[in-house]
Amino acid sequence: MSKLIFENEDSLVLLSGGIDSSTLLQEVNKQVNKKVSAIFLDLGQEPAFRQKTYAQRLCHRLNVPLHIIDAPKIVDIYAIATEPPHIMQTETSSRLVEDKGPASSEGITAFVAFTAQWLGYKKLYHGLTTSDENRWPHLSMREISDAVNNLLKVSGCTTEFSFPFIEAGFDNDAVIEHAKNSKFNYEMTWSCLWGNRYHCGECSSCKKRKSVFSKTVGSDPTHYATSAVDVQTDHIPQ
Fold first, then answer.
1. Is 6 within a domain?
2. What average pLDDT values come out for the chain (238 residues) when binned by 10 residues?
3. Recorded GO terms, molecular function (predicted)?
4. Which of the 8 DSSP states describes residue 120?
């Protein structure tokens, strides 16, 4: 595992509201003295509202601009173009139907990269980790990165895209450890696959969150739903 080092260039971070991307944004904001912003891509999935809310709160605390792209139809295009489909779009939301990998692979990542170029950023960073590589072994994150950068290059764009955590050899545990040691805010994050008031504590993402916190921090600061009242009571850190 190597040290995270970022070039001092105008930088844009893909922010999902989760632990990894939130830690990445805080590290980039710490190192880079030029323009740093975040971008949230709302694909209309179940937890999008919660993810976006946590992303907004974090950016407000950091005094970092947040670009929000409301683009659920991109998921439809991606699903049609991909066989078998990764995403199913319903009338109100989209949901994962097969654990084939992140929706933000080549096509969607390229879309965000072109947006970054249009907004004037030199660097675009994505917070996937080596744990994600292990989860989706059929996907090569480096190949995705190369494909996106080649597309940008032949299109005359100067924005460069990368996965800093993967390049530095960080897995999910290492990200939390780094956030803890750097005194970053890792509590103001959303992991749950559902969009309720609290983390459900039962979905695969919540279980992974519990495991990571248990191994690296020793205690989990997350408030999990324990009753119907929890689901009805809003509790988002100020």
1. no
2. 90 95 97 96 84 94 94 60 38 38 61 89 94 75 84 90 94 92 88 90 90 85 75 47
3. ATP binding; ligase activity; metal ion binding
4. T
